[in-house]
Specification:
Length: 207
């Protein structure tokens, strides 16, 4: 009995196998690339959190500072996330929040911060516009009675145009400890010495 082969079908099947193997490799490579891009973008995505907000108190001059992330560059060419607006507060001796400054939009890695309600503030923009940049807001004239209990409470509210959906609206509060300056002992003063008096105390290093 003779064997008859359909050479046309056999040739087509061989071609189909080669075509499938060739394109399977292509799709596998494409899948790996897309997976890499997905993880890369996910790793670079930025969502504002409480870790992007810090507070501190300067015992030497009695000022308090809020530091807040204002600008984040995802990867240099992908997209940038930034502060849309923010308000800054301290808690007074009655337990009420008092707004002392506010910031505007920091798109383009620049923006402004101004004082509110008669308070004196200084601000600076620190960091790197190719990575992370921060606005630092310092209140220079805190009421004395705010400092009486050894802790100062600071708060920031606002909105960040980030990778969250919808964009992150925040309201965060943190505290900073106020260390008291030790009282000198054995303080004494001389009599008039031309334009002033000489002071002395037991432990000069204590203040």
């Amino acid at each position: 009995m003779k064997n008859f082969y359909d050479f046309k079908r056999l040739s087509l099947n061989r071609y189909s196998g080669v075509f499938f193997q060739k394109h399977l490799k292509y799709y596998l490579k494409l899948s790996l690339i897309l997976t890499f891009v997905h993880f890369y973008v996910a790793a670079e995505a930025k969502i504002w959190g409480t870790g992007d907000f810090t507070v501190s108190y300067n015992e030497c001059n009695g000022t308090a500072k809020i530091k807040l992330l204002a600008y984040f560059d995802d990867c240099g060419t992908c997209d940038s996330d930034y502060l849309d607006h923010a308000k800054y507060y301290f808690k007074n001796d009655s337990g009420n929040w008092v707004q002392f400054a506010h910031s505007g939009n920091y798109g383009g890695c620049s923006g402004s911060t101004v004082a509110d309600n008669g308070y004196s503030v200084t601000y600076s923009f620190t960091g790197d516009c190719d990575n992370s940049a921060f606005v630092e807001v310092t209140i220079n004239n805190l009421p004395n009675n705010v400092l009486d209990n050894g802790t100062i409470y600071l708060r920031v509210t606002g909105k960040a145009l980030d990778d969250e959906t919808p964009d992150t609206v925040f309201d965060w509060e943190k505290s900073a400890s106020i260390s008291s300056v030790p009282t000198p002992t054995g303080l004494s003063a001389s009599t008039d010495d031309c334009t002033g008096v000489n002071l002395s105390w037991t432990y000069p290093s204590s203040i």
